[in-house]
Amino acid sequence: MASRELTTIILAAGEGTRMKSARAKVLHEIAGAPLLAHVMETASAAGSSALAVVIGPDRDDVADMARRFAGKLDIKLDVFIQTDRLGTAHAALQAGALLQAASGDVMIAFGDTPLLTPATFEALRQSLREGADIAIAAFTATDPSGYGRVLAQGDQVIAIREEKDASAEERQITLCNGGLMAISARHALRLLKQVGNANAKGEYYLTDIVEAARTEGVIARAVVVDEDELRGVNTRAQLADAEALMQQRLRREAMEAGVTLVAPDTVFFSHDTVLGNDVWIGPHVVFGPGVSMAGPGEILGFSHLAGCRIAAGARIGPFARIRPQTVLGENSHIGNFVEINRSTLGADVQANHLAYVGDAEVGRGSNIGAGTITCNFDGADKHHTRIGRDVFVGSNSTLVAPITIGDEVLIAAGSTLTKNVPDGALAFGRARQSELDGKGRDRVIANQAKRAARKARGA
Ligand code: UD1
Ligand code: CA
């Protein structure tokens, strides 16, 4: 395996005008993560020891996101700013300081190509190990328009011609440059510096290093990759296409890992969803970022989960909503129209119907009756609810936080509780029931008479 170091530079200074968005293109998301984050994750998984992103000026939002995500990946990141957008080679040269110090392999990737895989990074590096000095990821395009064409001679690439600079004959070529390029570190900086801008767009093209290299006897080769993996995102429609491809990939990975998807096309994953063996997922389930669930377990249809950790044996849904900062213990049952938010539930907790549990801790074995609401918000601040173990919260109870309910408490149905309840108590928080003898029947009979009279009048 590769013991050579890998330095990856991700170019993300483009303006993304075709997105028609105030947001930087690389901050648009698929599978719950920004486009740039996907490329960073792949670069990290491929074993990069150093990572750089090149961003446009006044893009603190992109720099912040990249730094945050690098922290999560636990990878060293340098952010470089390309003040003038003079082309892809010029962009790569902004990371000159890093290239100067690099040894081993340098990988140049684009921030708007989120479907790249570590396997393709590895295939390009393999090509370098086998003697190439430059390796590019190429694909056979169904429609090559807009892409750089790969000009090959034998097993070598002799040039990459951008569409605008290509002759009519060159435009017939369907082998296209996918945008991912590996360069042996000892050549990278020198070759990039040789690139000029004598072309139709007057830009410094990264792709021109192939020709610059040839004059020095440096060898470039292409590795052919599936077209889908190299899809770039320039428009909202392409963003949706990339999302669809990524979802297909995540669904397949989940099933390969031992998860049952009854209707795979209706389940939407986040890039970081983690599901254990024998998790069973019904139709129309959506995962936001940060969900992990141990198996076995079940998520029934139309449930929405984000930012939660779920222990084995859980049954969620149908129509459940589990929101961030939630932990569900073993064998918890969360049923229809139940929302759990920023809460920790112990083992064997049940909330089977129509409830809101927010900013709460619920001890093991407790049962949250239908219609229970933790009133966590007073209009200005959020407050905590603590419920002990083996508590039975009767239906339609309103727990006004901050409040602490002890262990083995029984709360009578329909209670509104505003004070703490000690261990073992039976708590009532409702008006005492009273009856007026015969008054009900009087009203029933009077109503029947009224209706009969109305009917007789033909009204
Ligand atoms: C590029 C390739 C083309 C390839 C295609 C694959 C070049 C010259 N062309 O074309 O051969 O077929 O990708 O999708 O490399 N960027 C900067 N600074 C710049 C210019 C671009 O950071 O000054 C970044 C962009 O943000 C983007 C990437 O580089 O992430 C590619 O730039 P883009 O203008 O989209 O190149 P293409 O015309 O698509
Ligand atoms: Ca592009």
Description:
By secondary structure, this protein is an alpha/beta fold. Strands 12, 14, 15, 17, 18, 20, 21, 23, 25, 27, 30, 33 and 35 form a 13-stranded parallel sheet that branches. The protein has an eight-stranded parallel sheet with strand order 13-16-19-22-24-26-29-32, with no helix packed on it. α1 (35-45) runs parallel beside α2 (60-73). The mean pLDDT is 96. It binds uridine-diphosphate-N-acetylglucosamine and calcium ion (CA). Residues 11-14, 54, 82, 85-88, 90-91, 110-112, 147-148, 160, 162, 176-179, 205-207, 232 line the site of uridine-diphosphate-N-acetylglucosamine. UDP-N-acetyl-alpha-D-glucosamine binds at residues 11-14, 25, 82, 87-88, 148, 162, 177, 234, 323, 356, 367. Keywords: Acyltransferase, Cell shape, Cell wall biogenesis/degradation, Cytoplasm, Magnesium, Metal-binding, Multifunctional enzyme, Nucleotidyltransferase, Peptidoglycan synthesis, Repeat, Transferase.
Q: Which shape, going by the Cα principal axes?
A: elongated
> How many strand elements?
35
Which structural class is indicated by helix and strand composition? Answer: alpha/beta
Question: Segments where pLDDT lies below 50 for 5+ residues?
Answer: none
- CATH overall fold name of the largest domain: Spore Coat Polysaccharide Biosynthesis Protein SpsA, Chain A
- Radius of gyration, whole Å: 31 Å
Number of helical stretches of at least 4 residues? 10
Range of helix content = 10-25%
Distance between the termini: 90 Å
For the largest beta-sheet, the strand count, sense and barrel status come to: 13 strands, parallel
CATH class of the largest domain: Alpha Beta
Average pLDDT, rounded to a whole number, is 96
Ligand set: uridine-diphosphate-N-acetylglucosamine, calcium ion
How many domains is the backbone divided into? 2
What oligomeric state do these chains adopt?
Answer: single chain
- Report the CATH superfamily of the largest domain: Spore Coat Polysaccharide Biosynthesis Protein SpsA, Chain A
CATH architecture annotation of the largest domain: Alpha-Beta Complex
Report strand %: 25-35%
